[in-house]
């Protein structure tokens, strides 16, 4: 059975426009939070694999000045490798969200990809009749969170 085609919320464009107005650290914090919200999707299937969690932690560590951009980028590569190894599209998307969150330390444009992969993880992890509602809810959360900024250096959680 083929996977259903991902359908994003119209709010995506507003999020992308808002992201263009943000500083690097705000985007890194936001990306980490977006990825953290779907980390459970990865960890429920890959219970022993810490690469997605480590990538989110690396992004947060970079925000706080505890690790270098190079180290955050290495964590991003590891999370993307975990995504490639998964045959579950939701699990893969959750790991890619984490990878892009860490990669935001290198290039701030990765933040919007972290948000989009988080939404894809939710879409593919949801029942078909819930997909549209859950995507809209998550995009609404993403927009509001980004609109409020992220001044707490990556410590904010769900």
Layout of SSEs?
Layout: H1 11-19, H2 24-36, H3 39-45, H4 51-63, H5 69-85, H6 89-103, H7 110-125, H8 131-148
Helix pairs in contact: 1-8, 2-4, 2-6, 2-7, 3-6, 4-5, 4-6, 5-6, 6-7, 7-8
Key words describing this protein structure:
68% helix, disordered C terminus, mainly alpha
Describe the structure.
The chain has 158 residues and is mainly α. It is built from eight helices and no strands. The chain has helices spanning 11-19, 24-36, 39-45, 51-63, 69-85, 89-103, 110-125, 131-148. The radius of gyration is 14 Å and the shape is globular.
Question: What oligomeric assembly is this protein in?
Answer: single chain
Q: What is the mean pLDDT? A: 93
* Main sheet attributes: strand count, strand direction, barrel closure: none
Number of strands: 0
Q: For the terminal residues, how far apart are their CA atoms?
A: 34 Å
> Roughly what percent helix?
55-70%
Q: Could you tell me the radius of gyration in angstroms? A: 14 Å
| Low-confidence runs | 153-158
Structural class comes to mainly alpha
**Beta-strand content:** under 5%
The count of helical stretches stands at 8
What order do the SSEs take from the amino end to the carboxyl end, as H and E?
Answer: HHHHHHHH
State the shape: globular
